[in-house]
Structure formats: structure tokens, C-alpha cells
Amino acid sequence: MDTNSIENIELKYLTVDDFKELKAATLESYAGVLTSYWKKKHIKALTTMFPEGQVVIKVDGDIAGCALSLIVDYDSIEDEHTYQDIISGESFKNHNADGDVLYGIDVFIKPQYRGLRLGRRLYDYRKEVCENLNLKSIVFGGRMPNYYKHKALTPKQYIEKVKRKEIHDPVLNFQISNDFHPIRVLKNYLEGDTASNEYAVLMEWDNIYYEKPSKKASTVKTVVRLGLIQWQMRPYKGLDDLMEQAEYFIDSVAAYRADFAVFPEFFNAPLMAEFNHMHEPDAIRELAKFTETIVNKLKQLSISYNINIISGSMPEVVNDKLYNVGYLCRRDGSLERYEKIHVTPDEAKVWGMQCGNKLQTFETDCGKIGILICYDSEFPELSRLLADEGMDILFIPFLTDTQNGYSRVRLCAQARAVENECYVAISGSVGNLPNVNNMDIQYAQSAVFTPCDFSFPSNGIKAEATTNTEMILVADVDLSLLRELHSFGAVKNLKDRRKDFYDVIRIKSHK
């Protein structure tokens, strides 16, 4: 059809008044394949029980295509079902307004209007309905109109060849290109469909925004506000003085209704000044004696300021071994511990720091998070394991003394955001501690990184602090954009991994 002659294309709800034109369009579209059409009573029933599920697309006032659908409770439908099972002998009694799946029962475009991508408009409309009604997915039995040419193949073999573009099937190719995927083959699905040998492919499109209804009050957020604390290293009179400064920053980010307050690695290092006369390994073990008190105080602050606090990291002695650890203090009062898996050569040589073995994601009221301490961010296997557990946000408290060290953390953090399709927040310290051995000058620019795709900043930087300046950085991240990225991104790093060729595994003894 000459597109230059088209003046108007519109999508409209189907009405009973459209019956005669719809009948003619149906017979024309299915000519030589199916001879049946919807009766007037069917159109009346469908448009009464589920009007938003029945639409036509009109070109200059004439019906060019149609899409009809029901809402079903999918658990009540047998896996092996037929088309008649779904429409219940044309009584549509399977329609359930409280169901969880949109089931497509008819869709067509008249021959003279094919090639204008009108079918895509109908599919896109169905997706909007699915999202707006909070349904889990769209399903339908898809025909295989070219299967009769390849009857020597099993339906499974035929589908695989279609997916590999070795066989062209206009229906399956179109559905796959519109993000539908095969679930199973249905035998004897549509009586009279000889071209498909009466087989159909049950196709599905998943609604990534679906939220399972709950009777409990839910506070899980999709837009999460991060508060990064770019901490100034300076002398403090003692623990109370340091915690007063920590509370000041917590108060500051909480005033902006941040969901997380993130401290840097070894933010409590100024307290080592009191032990600077000691040998370095002894001095840091003295610092470790403050850890329990600091964690308890941060836990209290997380409750009183209604904010999740990531404590950065602190030294801790367990069974006479020194570790670099941190704590997640949730605002509900619960506490979680994490460890630095890879200690730097300097930490091992100067302090005798031991490598940790604890790695996990943490459930929060703002999604699933992961936490890696500084050097750990430079080992992509760790964040990949966390991504496999469904991590949305990766937090990296760090401490670097030179721009070289900072660049390693920053660049690796940005890579982690891209390869794991997640947000990454890094929080570091600035300033200097001339009165603490092995803690000289700090270099930092705290930042929040994103994947690089159309819904995110093109350079992957959501926000960043001023270099080497004491401040807070507050930024919002939208978790729903990650769900969209996982399914519809320009590239799909998580889905496209060649797990048949390589994988990242965790040794069982370290789980």
C-alpha cells in the first residue's frame, strides 16, 4: 500500500457497531486458512466483560487489524490446552478480571495493510494493558503457518530452525522480534489449521514491572536515594568526637530523605593517632577495639534517623586474626556483616590483615544490594557472583592515597556497572593524617555509576562529588530502569553470557 496516501491511523476500542466490518476483515485476513469469524454475540460479550482488551486499528476510518484478548488465572489452565479450552466454547467463562495473565485470542492485519508495522502497534498496546493492569505476562497460541512445508521436522526442530533464521515463518519471526519467547508446543490446538498441522507454539511476553499482590504492607521502593559521605580525615579528640561528626553527616543525608548513608573504608582511622607510638600491627589492633562500639552506635542511628547505614569498613579481630570488615545497619534494626575478600599487599605486609571469606547479597527495603570493600572491586568475579543473586546496587567503600589507586577503583566500578547491569556507588575519604603511620594522604571523588544505555547517562555517570573535598553526594537511582534494561537493553550483558562456554563459580566451602 502507498503510505503517502494514508491520512490517519488510529487505535480504537472495538464496539458492537464494528461487527459487520470486522466480520469482512476477519474473513479476508484468514482467507484459505480459517473460515470462521466472531459472531455479533461474541463481540458484545467481549466488549462488555473486558472492553480495554478488544481493539481495532483503523486506517482512514477502515478497520485494518484487530486484537482480542481475555484475562485468565493461568494456574487454572492446563499446560496442554486447546484454543477451545481458552474461549470455553465461545462462552469466555475463563475470563477472570482478577486473573494474572493476558491471553491473546485473536490478532490479524488485513493483507493490503501488512508491511506498515501495524501489528507491532497492536502488540505494543497489549503490553501497555498488561503493565497497567499489573499482569504477569501475555500468552497466546501462535500458529506455525509454514510448518506444512517441513513436516519431516518435529515442531521443536522447526522452531529452532526458525529461531536460527534457517526457516522463515512470518508469524513466529514476528512474535520473536517483538520479545515473545516460546514456552511449549501445543498439539491439536486449533482445529482446521492444516498449515500448522494443528500445532501451535505457546508464546509468552514477561511483564518486568509485575508486582505480586501482597496482603502485607509493602515498603519496597523503586526509586532509591543514595547518600554518599565523602569523609574528611582529620584529628579527633576521641571516639565521641568522631561519632558526633558521623552523626552530623547521617543527619545531613537523612534530611534529604536518603535511603542509604554510605561511609568510606577505614573512616575511623583517625582514632589510631592515640596509638601512633606503637608498632603498626599493634596500633590497628587497638583501633579494632572500637569497632563493636561504633557498630552499635551506627545501628542506633539507623533507627533514629530512619536510614540504612553502610559503615564503610573497620578492623576487627576474630579468633586472634585481623580482618577488614563492615556492617549494614538496616533502619529496621537488623544488622549484617561483610568482609574484604582481597586485602592489598600493603594491608597484609604492614598490618598482618587476613583475607575474608564472606560474600553475599543483602535484602533491603530498597532492593537487593551488594557491598565490596575497595580492592575487591578490581576482581570482576565477585560482583558477577552478586549479580547472579539479583543485586541491584553495588556499594564500594574505598580508601586510596593516590590518583593512580583511585583510578583503579573508579574504572573498575564503572566496568562492574556495565557488565552486571546494576548501579554502583563508591564512597571515599579525603584529606590526610600526618599523625597516623601508614595513613598518609587520601585521594577521592565519590560517585554513582550506571550502565551505559538509553535510559541512563551516556557516559555512565549518574553523579559525582568534587574531588578531594569534604561533602555529601545525594543521588536517586531508579531500579525499574534496571528491569527494563535486563529485557530490552541495546545489549544484554547478563542474558548474553555464554554459560555453555564459561562460568563463574563459588567454591562450596566459602559460601
From TrEMBL:
It comes from the Bacteria. Transmembrane segments: none annotated. It holds the Pfam family Acetyltransf_1. Keywords: Hydrolase. Residues 224-479 form the CN hydrolase domain. InterPro entries: Acyl_CoA_acyltransferase, C-N_Hydrolase, C-N_Hydrolase_sf, GNAT_dom. GO terms for molecular function: acyltransferase activity, transferring groups other than amino-acyl groups; hydrolase activity. Residues 9-208 form the N-acetyltransferase domain. This is Carbon-nitrogen hydrolase. It comes from Pseudotamlana carrageenivorans.
